[in-house]
Design a protein that fits this description.
With 720 residues, the protein is α+β, with helices and mostly antiparallel strands. Helices cover 16% and strands 35% of the residues. It contains 13 helices and 44 strands. The strands form 10 sheets. Strands 37-38-40-39-41-42-43-44 form an 8-stranded mixed sheet. Strands 1, 2, 3, 4 and 5 form a 5-stranded mixed sheet that branches. Strands 14, 15, 16, 19 and 20 form a 5-stranded antiparallel sheet that branches. A hairpin with a 2-residue loop joins β27 and β28. The radius of gyration is 25 Å and the shape is globular. The chain starts with 9 loop residues before the first helix and ends with a helix. The mean pLDDT is 93.
Amino acid sequence: MTSHTPADTFPRQYARTLRYTVGAPRSFAVASDGSRVVFLRSRSGSDRANLLWTLDTATGEERVAADPVALLGGGEEDLSPAEKARRERSREGSAGIVGYALDGTGKVAAFALSGRLFLADLAAGSSTELPAEGPLLDPRPSPDGAFVAYANTAGELRLTRTDGTADWAFAQPDGPNVTWGQAEFIAQEEMNRDRGFWWSPQSDRLLVERADDSPVGRWWIADPANPGSEPAEVAYPAAGTANAETGLWLLGLDGSRTEVVWDREAFPYLGRVHWSTGGVPLLLVQARDQRSQQILGVDVETGATEVLHEEHDEVWLELFTGVPAWTPDGKLVRISDTAGPDGVRALVVGDHAVTGADLHLRSVLAVTAEEVFFTASGGATETDPEPGWTAVGRIGHDGKQLSWEAANGRPFTSVSTAVHAAGITVRATAEPDLPGTLVQVARDLPEGVVVDDVATIESYAETPVITARPVFRFAGERRIPAAVFLPTGYDRERDGLLPVLMDPYGGPHGQRVVQAHNPHLNSQWFADQGFAVVVADGRGTPGRGPAWEKSIAFDFAGATLDDQVDALQALAGEFPLDLGRVAIRGWSYGGYLAALAVLRRPDVFHVGVAGAPVTDWELYDTHYTERYLGHPAERPEVYAANSLGGYAAGLERPLMIIHGLADDNVVAAHTLRLSSALLAAGRPHTVLPLSGVTHMTPQEEVAENLLLLQVDFVKKSLGI
């Protein structure tokens, strides 16, 4: 890690380094022969522009394979609106090379830079620009390395030869709102699927998504600070409204075009696509209510599909990274939930679950001839000594020989990312008492033992100017995972009880209580301003089993808020919490929870700061909202009970609402509608609009001052 600038305060350093991610290695891949690891990293903890790097697994030597500064001749990047939107969907705040794809051997890497196409020869360490009709998105080489396919902002899917001799349109839009080879908004924002095309293993054809967002309602995101600028048009599928129409086509390099056929009326969501040598292409398709899904096999000659597996769940079905997939000998690999309060999220190979109640599966990393590599956390047995660990495991196809990939001598830490291929495992792990992440490259020995005998990839991320000191607990009867932070140097006899700041996310897919250091720095900084800070991962957050996550169905406002209250009251028995002075803050779902808390439980919460809150669930998107609350036409009472406008008359406590006016994920209309309801009810409140700011608030000065303004508002409201 690099040292920090001497004059840095935590808020400025935290904002400038994008939460200490700048300079840290990321986006790992392994060549098919295990000879090299490929990754992205910037030059320092203050430089946001990523370079493409390789690490030689024989020598441990790192070298630059592509430098964006050199490739652009020192010029600034020019990002298209489509690329900016794509980065917003993926919460990407860095610059330079932000993504790449390898050919089948890992000898070349394709990437987009400033809307242009580049190809890196990873063995030679050199890069060249290829002809392309840009601005382009998501370039991917064919497995044999002869072609690169890419999408562009004109809606085309194009091919270019890697020898630079030809570039042509492979599929062109047949309507004004049609795109080929691009994942639609819902897939990017909610399904964690950012790809829209997949090469065949033989490099002779592609599976290509065709998306038509003509049915989707149009919203306009204006810039009120610049009334002369034209509003941006956004196709936004709000809950209860039409989604984009998506389909798949098999497009051959010989000119053949075959539509893939499945029951799209019953299963309109295309959740996952997998194409490997282990079997036919696999699709995972979901019903709109996400209670039913099918895994389909695709006949590549006719486009017909066969149902290989079908699942139903009374609440909802989750999508997981890395599955469905094939083993090399043709067994289907998936992750599946069992129902009931003791339900298990298990790894299934063929027809058999190979993990049990002691593990909670998170993702599949790789499938080899003998084993499946995965990430998992504690299971539903509730025997874990501390909350928040995630580890990389490996298990045989028969469920035997389970082992863990130890990091720094500890198997159960917090794994932020991991990959495995060709006997090489790369994993980034974190620990509560060590800043940053440790990226280790390990090699399998012939007898199957893993040793860290290759290298540690250095991080250039800055060292934080403060140290986080989380104290982990399971709080209350429900054993709610929690972390507590006290001011640095706090002495109970001298300082007495502390005002409390609840600092949750508290919703689906947002685990905050993790066995790591850097994710807790923001909470520690708030604690150092004179608070006891509590972070609680109540029901609905990941990592505790299917029943825990699904217990919030149709009841955001009840379950998630109740668990914040229960955690607070349970922890007050051990920690110096002044329950007469309790504030709550949060962003996105956490912002919703903060506003909800002061509206519904003023007896517990005395001030709230709500950042980019969802206040009206009919204004949020289909796939997310309908999964948890159902269809608004079928459950209008659920939407009314979980939205905030109906509680406006009950506001008794100070409430600050913060919102970026350029936010196209949680649009500013959420805050404006709640503010209007509060005004109509005669309830004073504070609104802080942020001109030109999106959901991520990447601007350094904005991010820094937001922290300072929140502390000032909370202290004044609590009389501190």
